[in-house]
Amino acid sequence: MSNTPHETLITIDKVELDLWADIYCKARLASLIDVTLSEFLQRPYEFLKESGQASALDCLENGFFPMMPAQVQISRDIQRAWEGSDKKLRLDRQHLQLVHSSCGKER
What we know:
- The protein is mostly helical.
- It has one domain (14-93).
- It is built from six helices and no strands.
- It has helices at 14-26, 29-32, 37-42, 44-51, 56-61, 69-93.
């Protein structure tokens, strides 16, 4: 008995292979990240998320194309900007603001 790791072969039918190959092509994964179709087939959800195309399945299921590479980049830029503004907003809310009341005083 050897202790060398063995690869587990996973087989999928032609219809499922065609489905994932179609997703790989329409999401333009090869132009977004360095991943081959065979690598993508091993961990498709991970690569969709890594490439910024996590919504590709929903888009295709609803009759839309996934984002183009330029749209993915803009989406990432917007997400970073929102994340930065959320952090700033949280920091701003941590500060107390003194409020002076003129109740009881005559003008």
